[in-house]
Amino acid sequence: MSNQRKRPNGEREEDDEEDDAEGIGQWERAYVDDRSWEALQEDESGLLRPIDTSAIYHAQYRRRLRMLSAAAAGTRIQKGLIRYLYIVIDFSRAAAETDFRPSRMAIMAKHVEAFIREFFDQNPLSQIGLVSIKNGIAHTLTDLGGSPESHIQALMGKLEAAGDSSLQNALELVHEHLNQIPSYGHREVLILYSALSTSDPGDIMETIQKCKKSRLRCSVIGLSAEMFICKHLCQETGGLYSVAVDEVHLKDLLLEHAPPPPAIAEFAISNLIKMGFPQRAAEGSMAICSCHKEVKIGAGYTCPRCKARVCELPTECTICGLTLVSSPHLARSYHHLFPIAPFDEVPTLSSSNDPRRKLGKSCFGCQQSLLGAGNKPGPCVTCRKCKHYFCLDCDIYIHESLHNCPGCESTHRPKSVSLLEE
Amino acid sequence: MEMEEGEGSTEEKYDVEIATTASSLGGSGVFHIINDILGFVLYMHQQIPSVLQDMSLDFDGLQTEFTDLEAHLTQPDVKPVVRRKLLSSKREVKHEIKKMQKLMTTISTLQSALQLLIREAPDIQRVVLILGGSPLRPQKAYELLFTRGDNGLSFEGDFSKSKATEALSKKTIRALISTGAGSTSCPGPMRLFVLVQAPPSLNLPQDFLPKRDFRYNRKFVPLKLRFKCKTQDNETNSPFNSGTNDLIWFQCRHIVPCPLKLIEVSLSLVNNTQASILAGNRSTLLRRRKKMIFKIEDVTVYFPYDNIYPEQYEYMVELKRALDAKGHCLLEMPTGTGKTIALLSLITSYRLSRPDSPIKLVYCTRTVHEMEKTLGELKILHDYQLTHLGAQAKILALGLSSRKNLCVNSKVLAAENRDSVDAACRKRTASWVRALAAENPNVQLCDYFESYEKAADNALLPPGVYTLEDLRAFGKNRGWCPYFLARHMVQFANVIVYSYQYLLDPKVAGIISKELQKESVIVFDEAHNIDNVCIEALSVSVRRVTLEGANRNLNKIRQEIDRFKATDAGRLRAEYNRLIEGLALRGDLSGTDQWLANPALPNDILKEAVPGNIRRAEHFVHVLRRLLQYLGGRLDTENVEKESPVSFVSSLNSQAGIEQKTLKFCYDRLHSLMMTLEITDTDEFLPIQTICDFATLVGTYARGFSIIIEPYDERMPHIPDPILQLSCHDASLAIKPVFDRFQSVVITSGTLSPIDLYPRLLSFNPVVSRSFKMSMTRDCICPMVLTRGSDQLPVSTKFDMRSDPGVVRNYGKLLVEMVSVVPDGVVCFFVSYSYMDGIIATWNETGILKEITQQKLVFFETQDVVETTLALDNYRRACDCGRGAVFFSVARGKVAEGIDFDRHYGRLVVMFGVPFQYTLSKILLARLEYLRDTFQIKEGDFLTFDALRQAAQCVGRVIRSKADYGMMIFADKRLPLQTCRYSRHDKRSKLPGWILSHLRDAHLNLSTDMAIHIAREFLRKMAQPYDKTGTMGRKTLLTQEDLEKMAETGVQDMVY
Predict the structure, then answer these.
(1) Number of helices and strands (H, E) in chain B?
(2) What's the CA gap between B475 and B498, in Å, rounded?
(3) Is the pLDDT of residue A130 over 90?
(4) Distance between CA atoms of B823 and B885, rounded to whole angstroms?
(5) Average pLDDT rounded to a whole number, residues B449-470
(6) Which residues of A touch B1002 (CB under 8 A)?
């Protein structure tokens, strides 16, 4: 109960902090609506108690988790694991604005960099390309590729903003690129749009229909306000449209695009893909790599079909066109299909006389005590299957990084093995 | 009944024969047909609540209801009474869910068993569905016979439903219905058994029990269906010629329990809805019907949507009280909250609940577009009421408009404006023209009118809701003139939708609205300008052109009179005699107390005879000549003159020798003369009609009017353009007969603030006057008052400041900045055309316009309607394609009054300045003086009121629904003074409450940069996804349950 009561207050507190971070004149805000002072609590000796931000953070995280699992609930949704994503970044005049500090442009670049890393971490089999809009023209910064470093390098080198923005040009360019990729891949476009208008050479509605026809999933993240055309584009192509309130929000919105989206039903026909699992070249062997055309010693992989040398995995062999991956990559993509169910929150107040509660005084993950300050039971969660208790940190860690429940893994080992064998 | 399995020789009769074109049905076909018939049987015999396909939907509905109830229960502050009720209904729902679940699982296992069966033995031939206590004692039985194709049935592997199968099963069900299957319902709970005839090799012990010996009771006759395939017509008589002895019956183990008699339960609930709702004994079943029925005091209201806004509910409550009190009311509710539907549904429901005293609804709209919208809403409502109440809810509703909108005669419609359409129509339909046509076949008549006349009293509209389009279609269909038909039907209609003029303009009202009975409810929608409409209806202006035209008209009349004298002197004499007897004896002015007292013709006029000096046609023409000369002389003046009607009449009397009584009769005398002279092209005679109108008004009213003669326009003193205006100052004059005559008059609009001023202006006593706020899930409007430019200097359109370059630059800068922050559409309103032209010229010179065009395209409103329409169209296109656009428009212009800038077409409205009226105008000054003297309304008060209602009207264009959002900027330093003064100290706000409630104190005195910041923040906030229904604390969509709860607990504590 106390948790529930705390949460709304906590949110208000969050909002406050966000606003502060944006650097608005505080006198402008109507505190009357906020009532942030009521969130303050005194302890027994009358001292102000610092607001426990970790609980708030966790509550927010759980809300997100619930949302995700609600979307995936019911039927098992097919997910496109092999994604071909173009990130379109709008470097028009509006990107130079400074409502995000130091500028929208810098913030975009910074978070896109983080996104690219996160994206490849979650989707090792996928590829990214970068496109920028400047002076009303769309430029290809990098072609589709699986190496985060090269994308980031290309992105950081081009940080300047000028001219108008053109959504149509960008879509046409991306469409041209993505139309060629094989049918098993999921074609996606993620547009970071900072301008509020688009100056197009032709009828953008036609372009949108074209994208819809070739199943491009276009998502837009706006940086200033809702635009009708962006909303329309996203609705038509099945993408997400969101507008960032501030920097933190922008980051969240971007990272939302990292896990693979559910596959479009009519398109989700499973078929077989030929892949190669190249071996790492022996230490000290010298070869010219096929990707950079440079002589390299040691590091590199050999394509199992044509024996060409490539530097990084996953990639497509430049000689024979075979998709090259390593088995850990496949395994890492796997967890999207079978996510762990979100843990249930343990009500704190009633728990003291709950006999089950006595079982786990410490977190099953990190073995830390679950008792909070003053020997009161702190907030914790429990796995629905194995009924083990976990602390909030472990909860996040398990769901976001580990993707396996330690409790289930340890107790039900024989069964899970047999399941695998089946 | 002999039913021997395996005896092919017996001739069997089939109730239904279905032939397919396909050579064989195939396994999946058979399955789907069985499945569909199963669903049909269950549904028709009222064993399941809805058709099989919709079961899952119902199930989901129940489930959500259950969770809702649980959520309600967990709330800490639930009253014990409510809690008990909730608990009982929760139990009920739970029980139902269980039943439903059981039913659904049985049906699905039955389906899968059938699938298995077909997979095993694709060539089944007979399937029997038995409804009853046991298979041996059937109540109903359906026997399905599938004849085999030559190649036998084979199973293709999947059970997907093909189009052919679907068509076939539809055909089957149609055939079943036509034989009357399922028309009788079976009493008591029953079960459904499925029996299949299959080879004994079938081995599905899980699902099917072999049953060697199966036959019905001797007396029982099953309904038989046979599915015949095309290829084996030759062997239909012996379908079982091979191996039939091997077939035995199998009974499916899965028996559909059919425990629910849901349909009957819910039907009985509908019947005593009133009782159950009153008693708070709400049944969960009611919820599943999607629309709403609820009680307001003793009236059952039918509302054709699933949810209702709280303010709509309150609106209805107030309206109902006003109707009960048989009084007038004044209701302000923001646009976009569904005012129209609330009004319509309450009044029609009110009518239904009082069948003994049927009230008539007269709904007055401002534009034809609004009329169509209203009728569209009414149609939805009417359909809903029909489905619920059947024939007793039938009403006749129609829209009435001018000939231009209703005519179907292509030749008449070819005329370009309203007056010429009217004239063209009269040319074909006037009685003397038709008389002439009887002799001379060359005279053109309107076929539609002729056949309408022929049908005479039989020309009636069947009950229903007719929009203008429907009326035209109906007229075309029957060959009846829709215009005259509609006019005729007005006396029978329950709901009439037409324009203000039909009630307010005395000239029209006398003809159209005289037959309305006292019990009618009159609604004026969008009535914030009703005082102006009233005034305009009684104001006349005369220019040089008018006089010249009138002179020409008189010449023509003169010629006509001469011609008639020569040919048909009897007519003129007959008219003279009629006039002696007095106007009252004329057919169309029958003086019953029913007809609307014409303000232009006070009652006593009916008792008087036309004065002697204008009875003769020539004399009347002479009198008019003299009047024209006098007016011409007055127009030659050098100075502005202002006179009261009394002194005008006396000087007219002394100089031209026309006395007041003569003047009074001018309009009717002219009318009579024109009828006598058989003049049809009335549009050419407009000038003389105007003059006579003027004369009658001057002669009739001594107070509330003034005559103003201006030699030139104030704004252009060098161009002589003399104008003589008879201006009405008292809005109550025109509307008074309406208030007197009808029992309830409802005046409603989005902006009626301050609401206490209207009763004074229109001099009536409302029994209810209220202003409703908009309940919103989020703060979707953001009004701001901007007083200073970016350089902190005040901005205003005050006369001494408006041309100041600093102010113009600040306004420009504001727009440039805003345009770079606001997406899609921005609308700007200026105080006048001249000011807009001036400021845009300056902006063009200083390059501000160019800066704006970098962000958005710029469009203007002009005085030309076509140009403006084109500009608006392009503006919308620019908003759609993402280029963004700015629309420059003028307050009080066409755009400000009638065009919506909802959604992305208007994210921001900037109101540059306060749209005060042109205060130096003589007419306005005269009116102000009159208002002060008669109604004790201060000049300043009235001016601010008028300006702010215009401003509110302008900014109100931006938001048209709750899902919408928009910002409003009032850019004038005078505004905070006014808003503050009235909102804080006097508690009398001149801006409507729904804007004021969002106007925070912090937003009252902004400069450009602060406004930009707020705009940015607001737009970001609004772009976030939100929950439409609102949370528990701030509910904005009420369901039926909420309403009933409100009825218990009282309205206020629920809504806010």
Answers:
(1) 42, 28
(2) 18
(3) yes
(4) 9
(5) 81
(6) 28-30
Q: How far is B280 from chain A (nearest CA, A)?
A: 32
Which of residues 91 through 110 in chain A touch B, CB cutoff 8 A?
A: 94, 99
Of B210, B164, B151, B205, residue with least CA distance to B30 = B164
Q: Which of B634, B612, B637, B633 is nearest to B623 (CA)?
A: B612
Residues linked to residue B794 through DSSP beta bridges, in sequence order: B788
Q: Minimal Cα–Cα distance from A163 to chain B, Å?
A: 10
Question: For the segment B98-152, what is each residue's pLDDT rounded down to a tens digit?
Answer: 877 777 788 788 878 877 777 777 667 777 777 776 666 677 777 777 765 444 4
Provide, as residue numbers in chain A, all residues whose Cβ is less than 8 Å from the Cβ of B1001: 30
Task: Provide the ipTM.
Answer: 0.74
B882 to chain A, closest Cα gap in Å: 5
Q: Phi then psi for A196, rounded to 5 degrees?
A: -115, 5
- Determine contact, residues A28/B1010, Cβ cutoff 8 Å: yes
β-sheet bridge partners, residue B781: B966
DSSP string, B951-964: HHHHHHTT--STT-
CB atoms B823 and A244 under 8 Å: no
Give the DSSP H or E segment for A139.
Answer: strand A137-145
Judging by beta carbons within 10 Å of its beta carbon (0-12, 13-18, 19+), is residue B630 exposed, middle or buried? Answer: middle
**Is the CB of residue A250 less than 8 Å away from at least one CB of chain B?**
no
Contact state of B882 with A222 under an 8 Å Cβ cutoff: no
Residue B1019 is nearest to which of A167, A199, A225, comparing CB atoms?
A225
Convert A111-142 to b/e letters by CB count within 10 Å (16 or more is b).
bbeebbebbbebbbbbbbbbbbbbebebebbb
What mean pLDDT is reported for chain A? 76
CA atoms within 13 A on the CB side of B152: 9
Per-residue model confidence (pLDDT) at position A316: 78
| Spatial separation of the C-alpha atoms in residues B1007 and B792, rounded to whole Å | 6
pTM: 0.69
Question: Each residue of B570-618: pLDDT tens digit?
Answer: 777 777 777 766 554 444 433 333 333 344 444 455 556 667 777 788 8
Rounded to whole angstroms, the Cα distance separating B717 from B419 reads 32
- Looking at residue A23, its amino acid is G
Q: B808 vs A289, which has greater pLDDT?
A: B808
Supply the mean pLDDT for chain B.
Answer: 76
Find residue B328's DSSP bridge partners: B766
Q: Is A167 on the interface with B (CB under 8 A)?
A: yes
Comparing CA positions, the residue from B826, B964, B843, B831 lying closest to residue B891 is B831
Question: Are residues B822 and A245, on separate chains, in Cβ contact within 8 Å?
Answer: no
**Chain B residues near any Cβ of chain A (below 8 Å):** 820-824, 854-856, 879-884, 903-904, 907, 1000-1002, 1010, 1013-1014, 1016-1017, 1019-1025
Tokens 């100056």 belong to which residue?
A199
Residue of A204, A267, A276 whose CA lies nearest to A233: A204
Chain B residue numbers with beta carbons less than 8 Å from the beta carbon of A242 are: 1023-1025
Average pLDDT over residues A295-318: 81
Return the SS3 of B292. Answer: strand
Residues of B in contact with A199 (CB under 8 A): 883
CB contact under 8 A, B1013 and A24: yes
User: What does the alpha-carbon distance between residue A144 and residue A85 come to, in Å, rounded to a whole number?
Assistant: 8
Return the residue matching tokens 């009349």.
Answer: B557
Q: Which residues of chain A are within 8 Å of residue B856 when distances are taken between CB atoms? A: 197
Q: Which of A99, A196, A252 to mutate to test the interface with B (most CBs of B within 10 A)?
A: A196
> Which chain A residues have a beta carbon less than 8 Å from that of B1017?
24
Q: What is the C-alpha R_g of chain B?
A: 38
- In angstroms, the CA B429 to CA B448 distance is 10
pLDDT at B78: 65
